[in-house]
Design goal:
Beta-galactosidase, Chain A, domain 5; eight-stranded antiparallel β-sheet; 238 residues; mainly beta
């Protein structure tokens, strides 16, 4: 089992550093990279990007519990991080990047129509660690909204999708999980939802009680997480 420390990475990789740019290429095991990252025009300072042998990667905001983006193809360009140690020290995802959201994945709402928060205050979000499974994929652990949260993001072996399992415990009341946000979300068959202009799809369990709601910015796909202990697994297909 690998260390729980955020700065530890168990991975095999190669680095082309004889010429600019410096590109991290994932080998036989996932690679975990802590970095700064530009997303939605803002420099995110607590980001981890995970590259996999299946050539499916994602970036995760450790201070919001937010899945920022996913992509296929090459992993990441670290030139601005590792060459001459100058500013802005940004990691740059490569391949075909699908942006998602910088908003937190779970929230407490006054009612099911209340606005989703854009962020969680820095002091209201407590990182605990991450743990690695037998395939060296991380599960992120944190406390927020009065609950302990476990957030596991796993890549399917065929690279066709990712599965995300969010589990909460010790919650004092009903929480909601936001699965997607876009101008348009449409329900399809077999508990699958088409997001945006068919940019990607979300598949939820039949008992998830997911629902689409309209906001001033478009539509959102939410699912409730019951008081106490609850868990939800959904798939992101693109």
């Amino acid at each position: 089992m690998c260390s729980l420390a955020f700065f530890f990475s168990c991975a095999s990789y190669t680095l082309a550093q004889t010429a600019s740019p410096y590109i991290l290429t994932v080998g036989s095991k996932p690679y975990l990279l802590r970095s700064y990252l530009m997303f939605e025009g803002k420099k995110r300072t607590h980001v981890i990007s995970v590259g996999t042998p299946e050539k499916v990667s994602y970036s995760y905001d450790l201070k919001q519990g937010a899945l920022l983006q996913v992509w296929r193809g090459q992993f990441i360009d670290v030139t601005e991080m590792w060459k001459d140690r100058g500013e802005p020290q940004l990691a740059k995802p490569l391949g075909n990047v699908l942006p998602l959201s910088a908003a937190p994945a779970i929230a407490t709402l006054a009612d099911k129509d209340a606005a989703w928060p854009d962020s969680i205050a820095f002091d209201d979000f407590q990182n605990k660690a991450y743990v690695l499974d037998k395939n060296r994929m991380p599960t992120f652990l944190y406390s927020s909204n009065g609950a302990d949260v476990s957030d596991k993001i796993a890549v399917r072996s065929d690279g066709a999708s990712i599965d995300r399992t969010i589990s909460v415990s010790n919650s004092k009341g009903l929480l909601y999980c936001r699965l997607a946000a876009a101008p348009v979300i449409k329900a399809a068959e077999d508990n699958i939802y088409s997001v945006g202009n068919k940019a990607y799809s979300v598949k939820v369990p039949a008992d998830a009680k997911a629902f689409i709601r309209t906001t001033k910015n478009g539509q959102e796909l939410l699912a409730p997480l019951a008081k106490g202990t609850a868990s939800l697994t959904y798939s992101l297909i693109w």
